[in-house]
Each structure stands twice: as C-alpha cells, then as structure tokens.
Amino acid sequence: MSDNEKVRTSGEVVREQTLPTVNPASEKQDAPKAAFHPAVYVSVWITLSSSVILFNKYLLDYANFRYPIILTTWHLTFATIMTQLLARFTTVLDGRKSVKMTGRVYLRAIVPIGLMFSLSLICGNMTYLYLSVAFIQMLKATTPVAVLLATWGMGMAPVNYKTLGNVSIIVLGVVIASFGEIKFVMIGFLFQLGGIVFEATRLVMVQRLLSSAEYKMDPMVSLYYFAPICAVMNGAVALFLEFPRVTMEQVYGVGIWILLANAMCAFLLNVSVVFLIGKTSSLVMTLCGVLKDILLVAASMMLWNTPVTALQFFGYSIALIGLVYYKLGGDKIREQVGQANRVWAEYGNNHPAQRKFVIFGAAALIFFLFIGSMAPSYAPESVERVKGVLGGATPGN
Predict the structure, then answer these.
(1) Coiled-coil segments, which residues (predicted)?
(2) H helices of 58-160, where?
(3) Which strand (E) or helix (H) includes residue 268?
(4) Greater confidence, 127 or 330?
(5) How many beta carbons lie within 10 A of that of residue 272, not counting itself?
C-alpha cells in the first residue's frame, strides 16, 4: 500500500510524509523538545481508532440511533467547524499555506475525492446496522487488495501478477472467515464491499493528487479541504433519506453530549495521526494496525457477545499474515525478526530476571485474553453478571 495514503475520518489508514527540512541551527534548537516516546503516540492512535469504531457501532445499533448518514454528516460538520477554528487561532493548519489551492483544482480534484470519501463513510456506517464489529474488521483486511486493483485500473502502476499472488492470500483468508460467519447478512456485506471500493478509489485519487509537490497535505490539512464539501454532500443525501424520519426525541434519547463526544472522538483521531506521522516506522504502524484489528475483534466478543467461530479465527489469521507479508515483504520481515532476536538476547543477558517477568506476564495476558474471549460462548451467565455490575450493553451483534 502506498505511503501517501491519507486517513479517513473513521480512522483506518496512516500516511507517512517527509516534512521539509529547515536550517541546521533550527533543528539543533528543536531537538531537545522531543515530547513523548513513540509508544505514547501509537497507543493514543490505537485507542482513538478503536473507540471511534466501537462508539459508532454502539450509537447506530445498540442506542437505536439508526441514521448512519446523519451521523456521518454530523462528524464532517464538526470537523469543518474545528478545522476552521484551528486555522484561525492556531498554527496546526499552517501547512495549508503551502498548498496551491485554486477554484479549478478544488472542483476537479477535491470535489471528486470528497464524493468518494462521502460514499465510503456512508457505506461504512451503514454496515454497522447489519454486521458485527468483528466481522467488519475481518472484511476490512481486503482494503489493500482493493487499493492495488484500483491502482492498476486507474493506470497508476503496471499490473504485477506476483503481487497479485501475494494479496490473494488475504482474499483467501477473508473468504474463509466469511464462510464461518454465523450472522452473515448480504446487504451489510454489500455495503462493506462498497465502502472498501469507494475508499480504495479515494486513496488512489489522493495518491495521484499528491504526486505533485504542490499539493502535499498532512491529514489535518486534507480534512480542512475535504470536510466542508463532504458535509454538504452527505447532508444533501440525508435531507431526503433520513431527516424526514428522525425526531428530536430520538436525538435527545441518545443525548446531545454523547453525540458531541462521538464527533470529538472522530476528530481527535485525525489530530492523533498528525502527531503520529514520522514518529514510527512503517513496520511499527503495520503491526500496530494488525494489533488494533485483533483488539477490536476481542472487544466485540466481550462487549456484545459477538459469536466468532474457529473457522473465522483460522481465516482471519491467514488474512492478517497475508496483510503483513504484502505490506512489508519477506526480506523486511526476516531483517526485523533477526534484529528483534538480537535485541531480545542482549536484553536477556543484561536483565535475566526482568526477561523472565516479561515472558510470564505476556503468557498470563494471552491466557486471560483467550479465556475472556471464550466467555460469551461458554459462560454467558457470568458475562451478564459482570455487565450488570459495569453497566454493559445489551447483547446483540
């Protein structure tokens, strides 16, 4: 997948960017200001990205606010307001000043990309009405495949059958996982498929736009340009399909503060990506993305009793292995594994007791996560008692 991909509002892809260098004196002055360890940025990104997905699922399904287009419009409207405020009162969006944006470029580039962005968000949120978070994450593993095919289809790269063979592993794993899905709903599957296709098309169009140095944009600057037109497009669709049905009683039933927190969470996800760029390598981001998906599957099982079969686990494992191999390549994986083994051996020689503690802790964590994920299937009564104490959600998808 290209490094020039951007982040959608729901937060699924991170794009790395090489920032322009400044004079050496400035770099030396800024060096001591290194803020947090990269692990902090990664943790915040994983937390916010997972929270947005779980939050949207809760609102659209369990809170019975079944208006995905209105929710998407609200997110984009909130993002428009916040980016306008940040542009006027902070320096976060100063990068927009280097973008040579004209009315012609906006109509010919930003608007078509915004259309794809809107359609991908609408389809993605519609999916939450029909499918579980666990199954949605499994289907999203095919996004790199769709991006690759879109790249070939739009003439951005020549067809490579070896690469196609590599990504076919991802498709095979997702197909196996789909056959193992108990609550398979075709309309939800088609919405998710449409969302992936629109997102892949958007990412390739963005790659084409960013191929010119004049239009290099970080995620916040791109949100500054895309959010207004996407909010208008989504609002126009919602005006005919959902606004005639929604009532203020339903809005108040969910809670104004809940909706505000939901929009803020989605917006902060984009902010976290800006601070994350350049802090970690592509290897770390790939593995963290896989970890986030696995955690979301586990969270869906524990929060909402989502049934996940052994066949799905098997298929999803194949898809994740294929995803990591496709993004990093065999040579990169072997190099990193060798380096990790050397670092681990050196750590063991210097801190033998601490290494044993880490091994024991990791084993205990994996054991409890496994037992916890199996609880909805084998001990539903205990799960319900815990949920009653914690105020958990009603069982559903």
Answers:
(1) none
(2) 68-89, 103-105, 111-127, 133-140, 143-153
(3) helix 256-276
(4) 127
(5) 22
